[in-house]
What we know:
The chain is of the alpha/beta class and 655 residues long. The protein folds into three domains: 59-278, Spore Coat Polysaccharide Biosynthesis Protein SpsA, Chain A (Alpha-Beta Complex); 292-344, no CATH class; 368-654, Alpha-Beta Complex (Spore Coat Polysaccharide Biosynthesis Protein SpsA, Chain A), CATH 3.90.550.10. The chain is 32% helix and 20% strand. Helix 14 runs antiparallel to helix 16 (527-542). It is elongated, with a radius of gyration of 29 Å. GO terms for molecular function: glycosyltransferase activity.
Amino acid sequence: MDMDMHFLSGIYNKKILQSGLWLVWMCGFFLVGVSFYGTQMLKDQIKMKKPSGSSIPSITIFTAPRPFVGSIGERQTLAVRSWLGLSEHIIVVLFSQDPSVSSFATSIGPRISVETEIDFTFMGTPFFHSMVARSLSSSSDISVLIDPDTILMADFFSTLRYAHKLDQDWLLVASTFPFSLQSDDGIQKLQPFLVQEALCGEKMLIAWNNGDLPLHKGVLPPFLFGKGVHNHWLVTEALISDFRLVIDATLTVSSFYLSEPDQERSWELAGNSLLGRNYGSFSFRDPNYTNSFRLSTCGGNYLFTNTDHSAVYWQGYSRPLNLRNKSLFLSTQKELFDCVEAVKSLGGCFKREALSVTKAVTLPMSMESLLAIQADQNKTILLGIAGSSYEDMLMSWVCRLRYLQIPNFLVCALDDEVYDFSVLQGVPVIKCASPPTNISFDDCHFGSECFQKVTKVKSRMVLQILELGYNVLLSDVDVYWFKNPLDYLTSFGPGVLVAQSDEYNVTGAINLPRRLNSGFYYAHSDSATIAALGKVVQHAAYSNLSEQPSFYDTLCGEGGSYRLGDDQCLDPETNLRVHFLDRDLFPNGAYRGLWEEEDTKKACEERGCFILHNNWINGRKKKLERQVLSGLWEYDINTRMCLQSWYTTNPKSYF
Ligand SMILES: *[C@@H]1O[C@H](CO)[C@@H](O)[C@H](O)[C@H]1NC(C)=O
Ligand SMILES: *[C@@H]1O[C@H](CO)[C@@H](O)[C@H](O)[C@H]1NC(C)=O
Ligand SMILES: *[C@@H]1O[C@H](CO)[C@@H](O)[C@H](O)[C@H]1NC(C)=O
Ligand SMILES: *[C@@H]1O[C@H](CO)[C@@H](O)[C@H](O)[C@H]1NC(C)=O
Ligand SMILES: *[C@@H]1O[C@H](CO)[C@@H](O)[C@H](O)[C@H]1NC(C)=O
Ligand SMILES: *[C@@H]1O[C@H](CO)[C@@H](O)[C@H](O)[C@H]1NC(C)=O
């Protein structure tokens, strides 16, 4: 256990986090990968399987289309039909949450399916790392990742059939090229663009066989799909990692897409560049990476050329032919020699150039615009608040909301780090109004000076949002959600602030002095609530305590003088009623020792819990450990993905 805690504290080491998110994301687990696979280097050769009948590989093509509307929809329809037309052995998986995509899939038939269980941003853009992880769990012989508007020709299938005969694990890459539709005498014609670097498409498709070796070592950063850089990153990593044979099949796979007049550049693109920038890029033709090969055809046979063109692998020869010594070539191999010369003359791709970052990743979206996008029809928003010491807790909370299909949430970030982190994780985020400047990483626990400052930001934010006409359900990110409580909470109607009780005594009143928990409450946007919250914020500003006592003392009177029965208060000045929530439904962290139960989840569900607050515990690490070990945890800190049904991982291995 000692060692385990040491490991944990290593991951969360304050200094590491301060030195940048990227380092933690990319280096921490990279090193783990190296030691496992370092011994499995490939040799510079191509091995074919012994011929065994005509086994046709099963192929799954994965992509994430945009909605099937307008010209984009037409282009995608054309593309998907071109894939399915190549072979009965090809099936297609579309990642999307858009209804137009599922109706398209239904119209096409059984060989195409739609999956929603991967990570998307709140704007509906899927994450590339999540797509790759899902594709890796496929049982098909070959998996393919492709842009949704790439049209494929028959040689795609024949190339993969050939690659399937290789007796080693491989990753195959092919650039795809833009074409435009030109109207010529009323007839639309495909017109290839003049590509400056002959074989350098911006877009590419990536395929790999279902083998034992991973594609690369290290962890794929949370790139967004379709925003550039991610393909390049994956291929570069595969080359550096040297696990698999990397094949440039651009010459044997004909693929193209209809070019759009003007591709939008967005902050998502900038984010991807920023993530990718931390890697030097390498050329396919760098002689240091001799495990990459260019595939071409010559006289109807496939031909492998290695990166510096010193050797070729040719059907029927078990050993490479050394091109440096021309006298070794028989006259009958003249054709072969010409083929190699032709391949050589075609420029290579993947230049050695640093990826450029055009914009800063933090393009703030205003609170007003995010509220308009995120709030539900009843103008209700769920507000979560987090600082960088709670990034993982925040993501577990966000993943849980995604799982429960609760889209109307917004996160307020207490510092720049958690803001950037949230943007890159596709979370709708704003910067909290005038956040405290000095948040202690590990010691911002209940009662500390830091805690007091942080909590006061919360009520100020809630007040601002109420004044904009939105109802707010504030939830700390250490609140685990079993099911959606909104219908229940809104049933109390306007003029009532519904809050969790922090009472630990199982018997007796739950509205005793200072028992109002300001980490989970629902505030309706009405004049009484706004006036009362205004008083709370005012009180907190002059108090040297946290905001929690300000809530109670303002709304329930000092010493509980405005108490009403055992579970309510009535503020005579604003006429706001406070209702303390039933603790069986909304238990705090001390109630009935639920966190100490053998099976916290079961114990809680049996009581009918909507939520369970992970409070009444001091120290961030203990809190985190308690939640992970109880299984009330939804996020994988290693891969930076929400835990998914298809994704097998064990978060308990963190400890
Ligand atoms: C490639 O190898 C050469 C000679 O061994 C070396 O000088 C060079 O730094 C290497 N390049 C990379 C990118 O590793
Ligand atoms: C080329 O191969 C021939 C026959 O094996 C050999 O005699 C000759 O030395 C080789 N030349 C070079 C430059 O390796
Ligand atoms: C809005 O409120 C009504 C009435 O309280 C409720 O029936 C409905 O489900 C709410 N809509 C949403 C999107 O929550
Ligand atoms: C931040 O906290 C540290 C230690 O708790 C303290 O030394 C420093 O003065 C604080 N800075 C500000 C600006 O409050
Ligand atoms: C719990 O509340 C009861 C009254 O309902 C009281 O008698 C008892 O002393 C309380 N226990 C604690 C530990 O405060
Ligand atoms: C907080 O303020 C109260 C009076 O409002 C005072 O009695 C108390 O000593 C103060 N505590 C601290 C830690 O400053």
